[in-house]
């Protein structure tokens, strides 16, 4: 009764009918309520996970805290070797894991494979990084003194991830945290708990094969109450959380109240500016993939197109004709472009957005709607929609996690488009389509895009792991993945060493005894 080779995938990944949602590695336990995971693909129950009780959580934290004392002393390149082995296991299991991501979350199988590839890529990046966790040396103002800085492991890192990237976001955090000498406790979304179980099984096998202690990779499961156990726990110096702005504000306040660190990856309201010098063909491909890929459920999804009035009708027509060609259906069938939304609650939010944009004076040029009938029994399949709207509409200001694209018109100079692009509370991803160097450079300048990601002639989604990933303003300011994002997973220490027999004081202060 489990179609599309899912049964084989589940068995390759060690998923049982009922899984223990608390784990310290190979030790699995749990005494909380049952979470049932239903596939948005066909509405059927995939399997169940027992959630984490307070007592289970304590057991996890005890093991994690003990494991940290051992793991931090293993040289970083040796920790990198473990991450290399983990990356290789992901290579072996890319197809079953990609399939589970697609079946449990609903994104296309291609995107499921892409997500696992992102995990493999960050592992490779982390392995190289394990030989480079470098600080700086400085010149001391005092003779016979040496000054430098070094990075030490931080401790137990808490990871809270969202349903839309149910495996990759964990890997971005955990691969870096592990080479940095941290241990991780992960709470995946309660909408995709099986992806969490599968990843934990893969990691556990690697730690076990290397005779490493329980607790370097830990898993907990449940709703926000389980997340709160981590945000309120002063044994966790860093909480990395991906999700809504609403969730991020709660997490940030809880963590800040105990002066912990948080790394936040929250909502986006990403726009592509289309100038008179844009390549229309590239624009359409970039915009359509950005808006309908992952059924509009990426934090980097394209929500707004800001189009110059002189090419507005041309772009609009090209978009409508592209949308007419979209095939919506089972994401495991590679002929389809768009799969289901995560659940029927998301479908309601999608419907509300379409209703609201019309109420506010918008005009639906691709109507959208919920699909019914054969193949759509889960009730989660919707048609991507396009609305002509204004940036100041309340609904346009708001991130709806669904394939709804807003067309906004600008006139005059590119500065006007940049003002619209920046005129939202979110600041994750942005893009400009232009062959005009002046426009592109203005967009990238200090007076340009205010987002963490700003692209030229590329859409808003699909970032590579090598760059730091994250955004400004209400997106939360965190940076994950590449560049020097690793630094947040470590504590910095400044060291000054005196190799003379004198004790001169800094700033020339005299203090004689
Ligand atoms: C997310 O939606 O939370 O840039 C992450 C992208 C992907 C990651 C998105 N690499 O679209």
Automatic annotation (TrEMBL):
* An annotated Gene Ontology molecular function: aldehyde dehydrogenase (NAD+) activity
Enzyme Commission number(s) from the entry: 1.2.1.3
Enumerate the CDD domains for this protein: ALDH_F7_AASADH (cd07130)
- Enzymatic class: oxidoreductase
For whether the record's keyword set contains NAD, the answer is yes
- UniProt keywords, alphabetically: NAD, Oxidoreductase
Q: Which PANTHER family match?
A: ALPHA-AMINOADIPIC SEMIALDEHYDE DEHYDROGENASE
How does this polypeptide assemble, per the annotation?
A: Homotetramer.
Q: Report the family membership.
A: Belongs to the aldehyde dehydrogenase family.
* Protein's UniProt name: aldehyde dehydrogenase (NAD(+))
Q: Which organism is it from?
A: Maribacter cobaltidurans
């Amino acid at each position: 009764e489990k179609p599309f080779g899912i049964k084989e995938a589940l068995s390759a990944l060690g998923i049982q009918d009922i899984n223990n949602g608390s784990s310290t590695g190979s030790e699995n336990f749990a005494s909380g309520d049952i979470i049932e995971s239903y596939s948005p693909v066909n509405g059927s129950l995939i399997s169940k996970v027992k959630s984490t009780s307070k007592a289970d959580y304590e057991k996890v934290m005890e093991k994690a805290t003990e494991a940290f004392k051992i793991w931090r002393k293993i040289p970083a390149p040796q920790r990198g070797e473990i991450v290399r082995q983990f990356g290789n296991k992901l290579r072996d299991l890319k197809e079953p894991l990609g399939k589970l991501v697609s079946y449990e979350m609903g994104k296309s199988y291609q995107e499921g494979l892409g997500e696992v590839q992102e995990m493999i890529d960050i592992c490779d990046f982390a392995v190289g990084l394990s030989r480079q966790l470098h600080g700086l040396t400085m010149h001391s103002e005092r003779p016979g003194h040496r000054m430098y800085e070094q990075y030490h492991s931080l401790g137990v890192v808490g990871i809270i991830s969202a349903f839309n990237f149910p495996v990759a976001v964990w890997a971005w955090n955990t691969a870096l945290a592990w080479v940095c000498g941290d241990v991780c406790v992960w709470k995946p979304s309660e909408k995709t708990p099986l992806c969490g179980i599968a990843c934990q099984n893969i990691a556990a096998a690697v730690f076990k094969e290397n005779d490493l202690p329980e607790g370097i990779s830990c898993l907990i499961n449940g709703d926000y109450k389980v997340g709160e156990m981590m945000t309120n726990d002063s044994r966790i110096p860093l909480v990395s959380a991906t999700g809504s702005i609403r969730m991020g504000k709660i997490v940030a306040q809880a963590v800040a109240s105990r002066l912990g660190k948080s790394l936040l990856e929250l909502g986006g309201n990403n726009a592509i500016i289309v100038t008179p010098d844009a390549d229309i063909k590239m624009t359409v491909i970039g915009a359509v993939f950005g808006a309908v890929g992952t059924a509009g459920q990426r934090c980097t999804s394209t929500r707004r197109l800001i189009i110059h009035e002189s090419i507005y009708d041309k772009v609009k027509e090209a978009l409508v004709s592209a949308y007419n060609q979209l095939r919506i259906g089972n994401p495991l069938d590679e002929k389809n472009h768009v799969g289901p939304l995560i659940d029927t609650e998301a479908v309601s939010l999608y419907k509300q957005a379409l209703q609201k944009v019309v109420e506010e004076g918008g005009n639906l040029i691709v109507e959208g709607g919920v699909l019914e009938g054969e193949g759509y029994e889960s009730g989660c399949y919707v048609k991507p929609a396009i609305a002509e709207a204004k940036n100041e509409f309340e609904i346009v200001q708001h991130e709806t996690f669904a394939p709804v694209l807003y067309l906004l018109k600008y006139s005059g100079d590119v500065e006007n488009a940049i003002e619209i692009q920046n005129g939202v509370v979110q600041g994750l991803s942005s893009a400009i389509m232009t062959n005009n160097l002046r426009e592109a450079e203005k967009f990238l300048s200090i007076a340009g895009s205010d987002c963490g990601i700003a692209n030229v002639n590329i859409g808003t989604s699909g970032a590579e792991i090598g760059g730091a990933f994250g955004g400004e303003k209400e997106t939360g300011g965190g940076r994950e993945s590449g560049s020097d994002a690793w630094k947040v997973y470590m504590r910095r220490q400044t060291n000054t060493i005196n190799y003379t027999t004198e004790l001169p004081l800094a700033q020339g202060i005299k203090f004689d005894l």
